[in-house]
Hints:
The structure holds 2 protein chains of 2 kinds.
Chain A: E1 3-5, E2 10-14, E3 19-21, E4 24-26, E5 32-38, E6 44-50, E7 56-58, E8 64-68, E9 73-78, E10 87-94, E11 102-104, E12 108-113
Parallel strand pairs in A: 2-12
Antiparallel strand pairs in A: 1-4, 3-9, 5-6, 5-10, 7-8, 8-9, 10-11, 10-12
Chain B: E1 5-7, E2 10-13, E3 19-24, E4 31-38, E5 42-50, E6 53-56, E7 65-71, E8 74-79, E9 88-95, E10 104-105, E11 109-113
Parallel strand pairs in B: 2-11
Antiparallel strand pairs in B: 1-3, 3-8, 4-5, 4-9, 5-6, 7-8, 9-10, 9-11
Amino acid sequence: AQSVTQPDIHITVSEGASLELRCNYSYGATPYLFWYVQSPGQGLQLLLKYFSGDTLVQGIKGFEAEFKRSQSSFNLRKPSVHWSDAAEYFCAVGAPGSARQLTFGSGTQLTVLP
Amino acid sequence: DAGVIQSPRHEVTEMGQEVTLRCKLISGHNSLFWYRQTMMRGLELLIYFNNNVPIDDSGMPEDRFSAKMPNASFSTLKIQPSEPRDSAVYFCASTVQGGNQPQHFGDGTRLSIL
């Protein structure tokens, strides 16, 4: 069975600082990987996805993520955080060939200090 | 383009009452997912449909919960009778079956059972 671990429940960074949110997955092969962001009172919005090819994936809002097979990781990064990035971030894994069933991590809450 | 539309956005009702949550898929999508989000359990998949047919309902907590797709673009999630422990945010998401498409989420229904 596939699983996702986001080891950081809560992260606080200052505006303008760099950000890295960790995600580790468990799956027997190369999965489909996603990062979603959820602002208060909103649904989940897709930031980026990895299916195959280049292991460094660019997403919206200046985010990127790198798939590292050897570490079973798919960490999310942003070089300079903006106050509007404060939200909850979810990593998700899906079976190859389909994005039907996703397993979500428990989420990382990001606080941005002025 | 219109995204996934959920209604109502908020619902407060007394225990024992029937609750119906509604979801309109994105045009052209044929897979539909219902999720429940709570602080304790995070984001849980309840059920998903492909082409109006329920594929996996193993996440439905008990018989009080039922979901239908009366047509290709619309789904309902019903709880009867409702209980306080059903209080959560319920999301639906849609995508295209079999393609490399991510799930698109609605803004959710915040349900409070008193």
